[in-house]
UniProtKB/TrEMBL annotation:
Protein keywords: DNA-binding, Transcription, Transcription regulation
Alphabetical list of InterPro entries matching this protein: Homeodomain-like_sf, HTH-type_TetR-like_transc_reg, HTH_TetR, Tet_transcr_reg_TetR-rel_C_sf, TetR_C
Species whose genome carries this gene: Verrucosispora sioxanthis
Residues annotated as domain HTH tetR-type: 17-78
UniProt DNA-binding region: 41-60
Keyword Ribonucleoprotein among record annotations: no
Protein name: TetR/AcrR family transcriptional regulator
One Pfam family in the UniProt entry: TetR_C_11
Single annotated GO MF: transcription cis-regulatory region binding
Length: 199
């Protein structure tokens, strides 16, 4: 008799998690070293990862799918608000904007901007990464309106732009080196809340 586990297991050799990791890491290393999305090749990724091209194509249908997975890994999962106060949840979300644990992100993410301007596909991919983060912030703001903590007439999308813009410009461009990055999220949130709190 075939067990449920046996029935669910796909035919052929099981995927090697180690190979998956090596391929994604090689992709991110090449991007951090200056390869662009357009010029990076599956051949170069395979050589850096120490695998054959066939190993990559067994896991991803093509370069674009691999790049999407690698960049999602680089960005990590969006932060999860605790559901406490609106202020605390907004500080959690704003603190994560432009902050990346992986140091390669500082080299890779700014280089993606020209790619997004040129390519509708890359822009759509960027939106797929950003939208879950926007959705989390949108829900915190809507909760604040529902519970009477925030004004009912606020423009949610504009409010999110006001919360996000200062963090991006500071963390991506270091717009003002005199700003304290450790306290900036809290100051941005408090500044915006001063204008949108219910009276």
């Amino acid at each position: 008799m075939t067990s449920t586990a046996d029935a669910a297991r796909p035919p052929g050799r099981p995927r090697s998690v180690r190979a998956d990791e090596a391929i994604v890491e090689a992709t991110l290393d090449l991007l951090a070293e200056g390869s662009t999305i357009e010029t990076i090749s599956v051949e170069a990724i395979a050589a850096r990862a120490g695998v054959g091209k066939a190993t990559i194509y067994r896991r991803w249908p093509g370069k674009d799918a691999l790049l999407r997975d690698a960049l999602r890994r680089l960005k990590g999962d969006p932060p999860q608000p605790s559901g406490g106060s609106v202020r605390e949840d907004l500080i959690t979300l704003v603190s994560a904007i432009g902050h990346n644990v992986d140091p390669r992100a500082a080299q890779i993410m700014p280089c993606l901007v020209p790619e997004m301007k040129r390519s509708p596909e890359q822009y759509a991919f960027y939106q797929s990464i950003v939208e879950p983060r926007r959705a989390a912030m949108r829900e915190v703001l809507r909760r604040g309106v529902r519970e009477g903590e925030l004004r009912a007439d606020i423009d949610i999308e504009v409010t999110m732009a006001m919360l996000t813009g200062p963090m991006l410009i500071q963390r991506v461009l270091n717009w003002n080196p005199d700003l304290d990055e450790a306290t900036l999220p809290e100051k941005v949130v408090d500044g915006v809340l001063a204008g949108i709190r219910a009276r």
